[in-house]
Amino acid sequence: MHESLAIVDEMYLEGLAMKRAQIRRDRPDISDDSVEQSIQDWITNRPMDAPGRVRLT
């Protein structure tokens, strides 16, 4: 079970990295802080597929 959770965690972090890359492609002129704020906004404002806490890192 522990290994399964590690895989899910890795996939989550890879998904965030992909979203960061998308934001940078769409808006190459914004700062790193703005990218992180955009990530946080995307996570907190998108429809959730399951209840629970949202992790931003």
Task: Give structural notes.
The protein is mostly helical and 57 residues long. Helix content is 68%, strand content 0%. The chain has two helices and no strands. It has helices spanning 2-26, 32-45.
- Main beta sheet strand tally, sense and closure: none
Work out the radius of gyration. 13 Å
For the termini, the CA-CA separation is 22 Å
Q: Please provide the count of β strands.
A: 0
Overall average residue pLDDT: 86
Secondary-structure element string:
HH
Instruction: Note the total helix count.
Output: 2
Q: Beta-strand percentage?
A: under 5%
Structural class label: mainly alpha
User: Helicity level, as a percent range?
Assistant: 55-70%
Flag low-confidence runs: none
Overall form: globular
Pfam families: Rv0078B
Keywords:
68% helix, 2 helices, 57 residues, mainly alpha
How would you sum up this structure in a few lines?
InterPro entries: Rv0078B. The protein has 57 residues and is an all-alpha fold.
